[in-house]
Amino acid sequence: MRWGMAIELKRCIGCNACVLACKAEHFVPPQMFWNRVLIGEKGKYPQVTKLIYSVRCNHCAEPKCVKVCPTGATQQREDGIVWVDDEKCVGCRYCMVACPYQMRQMYEEEDAQYFPGQELTEHEKIGKLLYPHTPGVVQKCVFCKERIDSGIAQGLTPGVDRDATPACVIVCPTKAIHFGDLDDPNSEINRVIKEKHAHAFHPEFDTQPSISYID
Amino acid sequence: MVTKAKDKPAKDKPVRGMSVKGNPEIWDDTWVKSTCGGCYGTCTIRAHRVNGVIIKIEGEPDNDFGSRGGLCAKGEAMIQALYDPNRFNYPMRRTNPKKGLFEDPQWKRISWDEALDEIAGHLKRIRAENPNKLLHGGTPSAGSGPDLPLGFGVFGAVFGTKNWYVGGAGLHCGSGSHMGAGLYHASWSIVPDFKYCNYVIQMGSNKGTGSGHSMGFNMRLSADARSRGMKNVVFDPICNFGGGKATEWVPILPGTDAIIALAMTNIILNELNVYDAEFIKMKTNGPYLIGPNERYIRDKETNKPLIWDPVDNKAKTFNDPTIKDFAILGEYTVNGVKAVPSFQLVKDHVKKYSPEYAEKESTVPAATVRRIAKEWADAAMIGATIEIEGEKLPLRPVASVMFRGGQGHTNSAMSYCAMCLLNAIVGAMDVPGGTLGWPAYVEGHPDTGRYKVIPYPCRDGMLTAGTFMEHKPWPVEESKVPDTVLMKELVPTASFSPHPVTSDFQKYWDNLGRPYEIEMAMIFGANMVRSTQNREIAEDFFKRIPFIVSFNILPNEFCEGFADIMLPDCHPLETYCLFSSHGPFFNYPIGMEGWDFPIRQPVVKPAYERRNKVEALWDLADRIGMREEMNNYYNVYFSSFGGEALISGDIASVRDVKQIDPSKITVLIKPEEKITYQEMMDRAFKFYFGEDKGLDYISKAGTIHWPKKAKEAYWRWYVDVRIPIYMEHIAELRDGIIENAKKPGMELEWEQFTPLISYFPAQVAREETKEFDLYSFSYRDILHNGTYTMEIPWLDEVSQLNPYTYNITMNAETAKKKGLKDGDLICLESSYGRKTTGTLKTMQGQHPKTIAISACSGGWAKGAPIAYGKGTNFNILLESDAKHACPVCWSQETATMVKVYKIDHRIEYDGVGGKKL
Q: Are B503 and B175 in contact (CB under 8 A)?
């Protein structure tokens, strides 16, 4: 079993719903992003194409971040999900340097607030109860492993059942993001990847990402 | 103090459908179904409440009223809007007697009783003197519930004021598109039938990529269409939202869309000789005979318009049952005068719009116009049919759509109608694959037959909407000398009026003898000085008003500068709303997507002393003795959807429109009753859908859902109605308008009052000089809606990551020629000396003669610290007067010529008194 995503660029409109769904799901602190939307353009006037890429940790099959981690904090699960054990991370940032996709961020500003200088909102307060963050460690996308794990425990199928699927996938208003098991030849995601000729973002990095894009 | 995380999966307690670390105590884990308040779209949502706090908002997967499970960023960010510590929690009184753009109101908390007593005192006096002294309005926009007809609309109508100033009037809304969508589709706006459409032409529109209307289902359906290969040609000065998802982006100068549409019409009719003759004969006024005076030739006995029957070789009234065929070409003699079918006139008229002429005006190469016209006409498949649920229907898989950008100019009405003409000649209107209005034809819920809206043929057989909530431009009222400060009665085709917040209003009012003065304003949910037009013009008007009441959730530039009393409104996540359920008006899913009547209900209780504004209005009504009249109005409102009694009283003066039958009004609320808002909702639901479908039922179910019939989705050929491809009503109005404009002394571009849909250069183009050489315009960014979304930290963060949202964009080559580069602080100065500043970001995907700003940014309210100083306020650059308004629909000119140069600081913040930028 190896979880993966395929993102249809024709569908994506750059609305950033995936970014905010992730922020809400994990109470991601201010100025921290586990996923982002990259906006750019290619071509010269008047032959121009706008580029929109929803990006996050690629959960690579050959993750450079795991190899460089000196403490074993950055780990890869059997299902391919790369995550950071807060208790083992010493904040050395080797993984941030190693990740060619720059999908990791250091969480330092423990006191950062969404409304600086004002009281913490009720929403921020409950976030510290439900999904507390440890300062001084590196953070990244975890493919919503908590949703996947609790979903599977309840007999649900990630990529099919909403409650077992990453938050950024189910929130997408254009249904641009497919999620499923890359190891299952009959999975919907493998059908989409094959039929629509999905390709990795920057394949030259040679890390075998679990996320692919469809032009 | 942050708790040390114990992120060891084995010890984490799994919680279904949410990410939790460790083992927190959870005593409330509830999902509540409701609708989103992030924009006009009102998509269905489900909100997750844990321990009394909303932690997540998702799209509702189980119905069609949205994105079927998805939601945009604005919707998700509503959590932070709800919990914003800057919100109003109590009624507030201004203690600073001075009013002005940058004044600090020095709020002082007061009680609801004190606030309402004082407001009621003013209202009572004004109602006795002259109700028109009350200006009321606002916008059904984000952050505040859209309870427009059930709240402020009812209150103002019953109070008796005709001065209803809508926040969207000036800028972000589409006066031309609402007029045109009403005229041609009996709807508020239009959408391509994404399911079957193969070729869309978008002109200054953002369908599915940013527009607030129909946000959720448009995003979903347009993505499906792009994915299956629908061609999407976008005429737009910028390749960002609409243009960014185009299969072909065609850069165009602002304000020239009409000539593209007319040149394509010319090519299709006169070069390709292609048109849907059946549609023109049966569904338009194309066969109506026009006399030398530009007017219909009418039957002397019945006064009905005449057509020519080429089989019997004689003129007949348009709905004569003996008609064997309709002539749409040729020239005839009737009643002794030359008589030409209007289609022939239209066909001849568009000949002057050659692709070369279009190129000269718009910069779009003539060959491109010619190619796209041919491709589109070929794709229309005239004559093709499709079978849907056993119904054989015309299939016209092409659509041409426009919204604010395309029609935000002084040629607004003509531009929009030109775009509609393109659809009409190929019959691609409310049929599979074509351009659809929000469904205008609802037969009602199967159990009750209620919640029923049926368009009907009105005067001269013309299409008229079956609900009074739609624009009803046909048949228009007669022009009158204005007696409201909106002055709209002068030009009955106007949708919304920029008056009285214009620089020439006082002159007209003086000329009219100043019939009365506005002594009080009640405004809900809008930001009249930042989002609607130039702030100095707005300041000049609003600071004259002695007493202003504002309902809002959050301080903004308008309430800080001008409100005397602020009433704390509920956020959409903490209140009920009934109006947002009434979808055909605004957001109903198109095509065969099902009918839904979703509920908006509180996910959390309103905190502090925030109140549902409609209940607060009822308290005011009680104090001034107006509650009984409001109750009666509600009965008319709900009954008008009941199928038994048609069309409310507030437009009773409109000629030939169906009136309400008083004997058929169902009394849902007895005049003397004082019920709660929930009780009103309960009764309305039961009336529409049956005794078992009250508030309890719909609160749990989230929506009343029932399937749509093919004849409802694609109603055009099921209702015997026609549309005016020749706008005889405008010719009819012209002389009266010219006469009635004399007294106020208003000069309009009279030439635009022509029945033939034409191109007129926009005012912006007339102001181009060597010095003021760039067309500046604003555009809708998908991250924002109005002004208040800029106060939401999550949206602010992602806006800062976006290269364009908070920056001023221009073509890279143009910037280079002017010695400008990315990151420069630049000033845009209009030929009228108005200035605004911001940071430059160059693009390839932008017309070289333009400069662009994301709409409504550049906040300066001190009570909205997240939005403060972010982006650039474009509206500062605009003029607001009759010269800069479309004479027919009164849309403002929303583009202006500027010169651009480097500057050392944000001059528009001089005098604001907030933090330095």
A: no
